[in-house]
Task: inverse folding
């Protein structure tokens, strides 16, 4: 082999290493770091409001399964799962004693309004974080599992079913909304009643399709019963 | 196979810049190291043409200017945690010796005026907007002049003096400014910056092949293209940095949402803790980590009832126990993030005392990390003095004058606080006050 040939082989080797780094190693590291950061946000939120513990994990799991069943792209599913994880970061602006140790039924309208604002707060916070800014709108416009969801219907306290109508325009947001409402209702009222409430609240074809996908996921062995809410702290 | 000294040169070309990619030398442009390695390799290979050296020096200076531009922007965004190291001076001297002092001085002044000074004067966003506005108008011109300059510089290297140092000088300015415009402007334009580098280096290799020798061209290809790829990976550095600061900012925003008035406390503690860390002989990188830990040291207060934290009167035992949980919660919040795992230990123990009476673990003195001790001192001082500057005082305590707060730190040195840290803190605070 000539010197030039040996040099070219060496060059190819170096390029192979660099390409592997750029295409495999770096994206993997970046994804891992993002996942870790999201986990830290969740832990912070759950430590403030222990009653919410595990809610994000369940919503993230269901969003992934339902999204895949509805043939959303892996990229869109990953984006929705990140949004599901980040929806709670605005909860830190909700007064500690509102969610800890008090039943939502006893909240005044002003307190309900304070709670309701937190998705807006989450969105505003994400706007300030360049790597997560693209999720701000999804988070801002998606409802949170409402502790006051009743057996009579989802989101009654929010004024009818406006949330679902708004989400019906976009399949992804609809998946996020349905999964999160199901987790909220099932955690509070049990699986059967949650299911009935969701059925009553969904009239649009998109939402119905999402609901059917959710039903299929829940029937599969991988879906877990929503975690029972832990007792709230008394401070 | 290449000869032994050629292999050495190859390792020098590829290995040294690769090492420089590590974050231990945040201010050093990879290209400066490339040039240093190239000069060493030229000597090893017996290349004695001064013009080759000159060309490499020009490359180094131009690329170092790009690094200056980027770091100035990062500094504006991240605070004074990274400082470019002025390594270009030797290359400026070399260029001056080969090309004359007057043109180099003029070009240096022009470069400073056109790139570095406005970058330092203007906020990053405004600068970015300016760059994006200027980009489409001038980039083509810079590109053309740069390529022409490089080719002519290499022609000069091959003995064709009719193009001479003037063209190489034009390439110097053009590459520097064009590179700044292209690489400093953000993600999409950053890609174009890499394309810009590729075009320049293709020109260099082609010229080397055409005017010097085939061996030189292969050498340039071997050395410069992989390094160029490493430079392309710089973009990933930006992504990692965004992600890193995004996590810190996100957690800080959460704490701010729960306890809005803690924000200024955290900023003050972070500034002072970094200064104390540097005074204690820690490296800038280590001091930066201490700064980050200080920003996040109260993150566990997200999980503490704000009504208790802001309670005007004394706390009951139960309430105090609740407040004390913030150290453990802080560590728990940071635990999932691998890059903050070390910080989580420092934060968990920032209320430990040398006499073993601290919380949450009651550690003996020899097990309390120095970083936790720094945060403890700075945090205590700020807690005592907050409100003196007209800001919000703690609801449960009136602000104490600085002199009294320092006396209190001295009194507690050896039992609660590390005497060395107290001493360094006093020096830092005296400097700040003076």
Result:
């Amino acid at each position: 082999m000539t010197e030039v040939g040996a040099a070219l082989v060496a060059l190819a080797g170096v390029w192979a290493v660099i390409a592997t780094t750029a295409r495999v190693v770096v994206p993997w590291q970046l994804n891992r770091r993002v996942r870790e950061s999201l986990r830290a946000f969740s832990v912070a939120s759950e430590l403030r409001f222990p009653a919410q513990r595990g809610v994000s994990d369940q919503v993230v799991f269901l969003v992934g399964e339902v999204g895949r069943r509805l043939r959303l792209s892996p990229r869109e599913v990953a984006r929705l799962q990140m949004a599901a994880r980040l929806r709670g970061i605005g909860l830190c602006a909700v007064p500690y004693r509102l969610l800890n140790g008090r039943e939502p039924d006893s909240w005044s309208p002003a307190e309900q309004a304070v709670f309701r604002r937190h998705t807006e707060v989450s969105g505003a916070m994400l706007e300030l974080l360049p790597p997560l800014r693209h999720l701000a709108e999804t988070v801002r416009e998606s409802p949170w599992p409402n502790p006051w969801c009743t057996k009579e219907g989802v989101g009654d306290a929010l004024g009818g079913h406006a949330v679902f109508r708004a989400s019906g325009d976009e399949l992804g947001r609809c998946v996020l909304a349905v999964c999160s409402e199901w987790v909220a209702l099932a955690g509070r009222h049990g699986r059967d009643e949650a299911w009935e409430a969701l059925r009553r609240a969904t009239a649009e074809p998109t939402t119905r399709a999402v609901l059917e996908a959710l039903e299929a996921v829940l029937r599969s062995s991988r879906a877990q019963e929503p975690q029972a809410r832990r007792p709230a702290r008394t401070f | 196979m290449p000869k032994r000294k050629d292999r050495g040169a190859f390792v020098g070309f590829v290995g040294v810049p690769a090492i420089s990619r590590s974050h231990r030398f945040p201010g050093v442009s990879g290209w400066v190291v490339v040039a240093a390695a190239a000069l060493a390799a030229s000597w090893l290979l017996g290349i004695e043409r001064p013009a080759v050296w000159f060309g490499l020096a020009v490359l180094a200076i131009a690329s170092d200017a790009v690094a200056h531009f980027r770091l100035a922007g990062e500094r504006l965004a991240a605070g004074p945690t990274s400082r470019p190291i002025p390594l270009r001076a030797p290359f400026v001297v070399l260029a001056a010796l080969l090309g004359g002092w007057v043109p180099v001085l003029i070009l240096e002044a022009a470069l400073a005026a056109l790139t570095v000074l406005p970058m330092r004067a203007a906020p990053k966003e405004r600068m970015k907007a300016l760059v994006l506005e200027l980009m489409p108008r001038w980039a083509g011109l810079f590109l053309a002049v740069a390529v022409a300059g490089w080719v002519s510089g290499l022609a000069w290297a091959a003995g064709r003096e009719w193009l001479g140092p003037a063209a190489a000088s034009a390439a110097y300015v053009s590459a520097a400014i064009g590179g700044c415009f292209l690489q400093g402007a953000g993600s999409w334009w950053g890609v174009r910056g890499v394309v810009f580098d590729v075009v320049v280096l293709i020109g260099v290799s082609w010229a080397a092949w055409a005017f010097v020798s085939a061996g030189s061209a292969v050498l340039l290809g071997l050395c410069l293209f992989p390094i160029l790829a490493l430079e392309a990976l710089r973009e990933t550095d930006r992504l990692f940095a965004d992600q890193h600061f995004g996590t810190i900012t996100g957690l800080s925003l959460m704490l701010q949402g729960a306890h809005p008035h803690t924000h200024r406390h955290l900023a003050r503690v972070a500034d002072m803790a970094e200064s104390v860390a540097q005074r204690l002989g820690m490296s800038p990188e280590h001091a930066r980590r201490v700064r980050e830990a200080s920003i996040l040291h109260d993150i566990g207060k997200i999980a503490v009832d704000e009504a208790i934290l802001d309670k005007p009167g004394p706390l009951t035992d139960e309430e105090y126990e609740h407040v004390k949980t913030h150290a453990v919660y802080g560590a728990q919040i940071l635990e999932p993030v691998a890059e903050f795992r070390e910080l989580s230990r420092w934060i968990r123990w920032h209320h430990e005392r040398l006499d073993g009476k601290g919380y949450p673990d009651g550690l003996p003195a020899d097990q309390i990390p120095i970083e936790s001790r720094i945060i403890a001192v700075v945090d205590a001082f700020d807690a005592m003095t907050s409100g003196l500057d007209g800001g919000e005082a703690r609801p449960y305590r009136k602000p104490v004058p600085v002199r009294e707060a320092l006396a209190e730190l001295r009194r507690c040195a050896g039992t609660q606080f590390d005497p060395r840290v107290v001493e360094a803190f006093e020096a830092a605070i005296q400097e700040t006050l003076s």
